Amino acid sequence: MNLDNELEKQKKKEAAEFTNMERTLAIKEKGYTENVLKAMVLDTTKDIYQRLKISEMKVVNIAGG
Fold first, then answer.
1. pTM > 0.90: yes or no
2. All structural domains of the chain with their residue ranges
């Protein structure tokens, strides 16, 4: 009987976590527009270069334009 209660409790917990994950992903899908994603990429790139401690960096465009 106790094992059945534990299994039922675990199933309810997993169902609640799944529902929460679904809701979170739905919110992110609506909120993460192209501009937001580009800004996130720029912020991440900036953080990476700050951690690398590069004293001098030059940007070169090899694609032209």
1. no
2. 2-52
